[in-house]
Design brief:
- The chain is an alpha/beta fold.
- About 50% of the residues lie in helices and about 15% in strands.
- The chain has two domains: about 160 residues, NAD(P)-binding Rossmann-like Domain (Rossmann fold, 3-Layer(aba) Sandwich), CATH 3.40.50.720; about 120 residues, N-(1-d-carboxylethyl)-l-norvaline Dehydrogenase, domain 2 (Orthogonal Bundle), CATH 1.10.1040.10.
- It has an eight-stranded mixed beta sheet with strand order 3-2-1-4-5-6-7-8, sandwiched between helices.
- Helix 6 crosses helix 9.
- The chain is globular, with a radius of gyration of 20 Å.
- The chain starts with a strand and ends in an 8-residue tail after the last helix.
- The structure holds NADP nicotinamide-adenine-dinucleotide phosphate (NAP).
- NADP nicotinamide-adenine-dinucleotide phosphate (NAP) binds next to helix 1, helix 2, helix 4 and helix 9.
C-alpha cells in the first residue's frame, strides 16, 4: 500500500525532487526546518512540503521518514529522530537513510534507532535528483528493505540489494567513487588544458576517443560549485570504508582533495527550487578565474 504521509529531512536538492514526486502522487510531505538555512526553508515551501513545529510531530505523523542530508549530518538526524520517537511514544516508524555514507555509519544509525524500536532501512540513491521518478534508482538493504517498495506506487524506482544493513551504503560508496572520481579527474585535466590553451581541442579528442563520456559528467561538474563540499564528504566515507576493511584507497583521497579545493572557492549558491544552472565551460571558466589548482608559492 502506498505511503500516505512521508517525512523528509531535509529539503535539499534531493529532498526537493522527492517531495515534488510524492506530492504529485497525492502523498503529503512533512518536514522539520528548525535550524535549517533560509534556502532550505524556501525550498521546502516551493516543494509544497508542510513544515511541522517539532520533530516529535514529524515522527508521529509520518508513515515513512527519509533522511537525505549531507553525509556528516546523517547520524545527527538519526539521533534526533530516535529521541523524538521516544518522546512521542511511537514504536514502529519506518526510517530510510538514503545518504551516501559508509556501511559503518549505517550500522551506527541502526544502533541509534534501536532503543526507539524504529524499523531501519539502509538506502542509497543512484542518479541525479532531477531524475527521481525518471531513471534514478533508490537501492535498499536490511531486514525491512522490501517495505520501501511501497514508494513504487508514487513513481519511484526501488531495488532491494539484500537483507543486511550496510549493503546499500557500501554499494553507493563504490558507485560514488566512480562518479566523483571522474568529476575530479576531468576538472583537473580540463583546468590544465585551459591553462595550455587547448581546451576545445582536448574536449573534441575526448569525445572522439570516448563518445558521450564528457557529456555524461558535464552536468555533475556544473553542479560542483554547490555540491563539492558534500561530495568531498562522500569520498571521506569511501576512504573510511576501505580502511575499515583493511584496504587503502588511493584515488578517493585525491578526488577528495580536488573536491575540497573546489568547495573552498565558495563559488556556488544553492537553488531555492532544486534546479541546476550553469554548464561545463562556464564552470571551468569560473574555477580557472578563481585560481583552482593554482600553486601557492
Ligand atoms: N543531488 C543529487 O543529485 C544526489 C544524487 C544522489 C544522491 N544524493 C544524496 O542525497 C543526499 C542529499 O543530497 P543533496 O544534493 O540534496 O544535498 P544538498 O542540496 O546539499 O541538501 C542537503 C540538505 O540537508 C540539510 N542538512 C544538512 N545538515 C543537516 C542536519 N544535520 N540535519 C538536518 N538537515 C541537514 C541541508 O540544510 P541547510 O541548507 O540548512 O544546510 C539541506 O537542506 C546526499 O546524501 C547525497 O549523497 C544526491
Amino acid at each position: 500500500m502506498a505511503f500516505q504521509r512521508v517525512g523528509i529531512l531535509s529539503i535539499g536538492e534531493m529532498g526537493y525532487h522527492w517531495a515534488r514526486l510524492l506530492a504529485s502522487h497525492g502523498v503529503e510531505v512533512l518536514t522539520y526546518t528548525k535550524g535549517r538555512s533560509e534556502v532550505t526553508c524556501k525550498r521546502a515551501e516551493n516543494a509544497g512540503a508542510r513544515s511541522v513545529p517539532s520533530m516529535a510531530r514529524l515522527v508521529s505523523q509520518s508513515d515513512l521518514v527519509v533522511s537525505v542530508v549531507v553525509p556528516s549530518g546523517a547520524k545527527r538526524v538519526a539521533a534526533k529522530v530516535a529521541k523524538a520517537l521516544v518522546k512521542a511514544g511511537r514504536k514502529d516508524l519506518l526510517f530510510l537513510d538514503a545518504n551516501a555514507t559508509s556501511p559503518m555509519t549505517a550500522r551506527e544509525i541502526e544502533r541509534l534507532l534501536s532503543p526507539a524500536s524504529a524499523h531501519f532501512v539502509d538506502g542509497c540513491i543512484i542518479g541525479s535528483a532531477a531524475k527521481v521518478g525518471k531513471g534514478t534508482v533508490v537501492y535498499a538493504s536490511g531486514p525491512q528493505a522490501a517495505r520501501i517498495r511501497a514508494l513504487e506506487e508514487s513513481g519511484f524506482s526501488i531495488r532491494v540489494l539484500g537483507p543486511e544493513i550496510g549493503q546499500a551504503s557500501a554499494f553507493k560508496i563504490v558507485y560514488a567513487g566512480l562518479t566523483k572520481g571522474l568529476q575530479g579527474l576531468f576538472v583537473e585535466l580540463l583546468i590544465g588544458a585551459r591553462k595550455f590553451g587547448l581546451l576545445d581541442e582536448i574536449l573534441k579528442q575526448y569525445e572522439e576517443s570516448f563518445p558521450g563520456l564528457v557529456g555524461k559528467v558535464a552536468s555533475s561538474i556544473a553542479a560542483l560549485p554547490v555540491h563539492a563540499g558534500r561530495r568531498a564528504e562522500e569520498m571521506d566515507e569511501l576512504n573510511r570504508t576501505f580502511h575499515h576493511h583493511g584496504l587503502e584507497a588511493i584515488m578517493a583521497p585525491a578526488t577528495q582533495k580536488v573536491l575540497k579545493s573546489i568547495a573552498s572557492l565558495d563559488a556556488g549558491t544553492a537553488s531555492e527550487t532544486g534546479e541546476r544552472t550553469g554548464n561545463l565551460l562556464e564552470t571551468l571558466e569560473l574555477f580557472f578565474h578563481r585560481g583552482l589548482l593554482q600553486k601557492k608559492d
